[in-house]
Amino acid sequence: MSFTPNQSDNRTRKPLTLAFTKTSIQWKNSEVNLGEITQNKPVNLEFEFTNTGDAPVLILSVKAACGCTATDYSRTPVLPGESTKIKATFNAASKGAFNKYLTVTTNAEEAPKTLSFTGTVI
Predict the structure, then answer these.
(1) How many CA atoms does the CB half-sphere of 51 hold within 13 Å?
(2) Residue 22 and residue 110: Cα distance in Å, rounded?
(3) What pTM, to 2 d.p., does this model score?
(4) Residues 79-92: what's their mean pLDDT?
(5) Residue 2 has pLDDT above 90, yes or no
(6) Which fold has domain 25-121?
(7) Exposed (0-12), middle (13-18) or buried (19+): which is 109, by Cβ within 10 Å?
(8) Strand, helix or coil at 92?
(9) Residue 50 bridge partners (DSSP)
(10) Distance CA 106, CA 99 (A)
(11) Per-residue 3-state assignment (H helix, E strand, C coil) for the chain
(12) Cα–Cα distance between 122 and 97 in angstroms, integer?
């Protein structure tokens, strides 16, 4: 049996939609100054937020601006009143000043949140 694009199987098809309830979050920090760090020695840092809304917060993605930064974050919903941390590990290959970014997408904020960290590699 074959179907052409105009044939129907008489079943009702509903589009798959993802409904997210908007909530709110409060960032404890969105910028970190690492000061002087050693070249080729990984440095750990954290950004923390609290769910200040009435619905769970979902972290949809965390993207580093470069391959020199690895990220880790909770894949489970952050319930109202709870906090969580987005962790990053930066491994600098080049000496000098740096300014790096993470882009965090959640269901709580309209636009992705930009988190930054700075310092100098010695």
Answers:
(1) 22
(2) 9
(3) 0.79
(4) 97
(5) no
(6) Immunoglobulin-like (2.60.40)
(7) middle
(8) coil
(9) 26, 83
(10) 23
(11) CCCCCCCCCCCCCCCCCCCCCCCCEEECCCEEEEEEECCCCCEEEEEEEEECCCCCECEEEEEECCCCEEEECCCCCECCCCEEEEEEEECCCCCEEEEEEEEEEECCCCCCEEEEEEEEEC
(12) 9
- DSSP helix/strand/coil, 121: strand
4-27 mean pLDDT: 58
Quick check: 47 and 29 in contact, CB under 8 A? yes
Q: For strand 113-121 and strand 31-37, is the pairing parallel, antiparallel, or unpaired?
A: parallel
Amino acid identity of residue 1, one-letter, is M
Residue 77 has φ and ψ, to the nearest 5°, of -60, 145
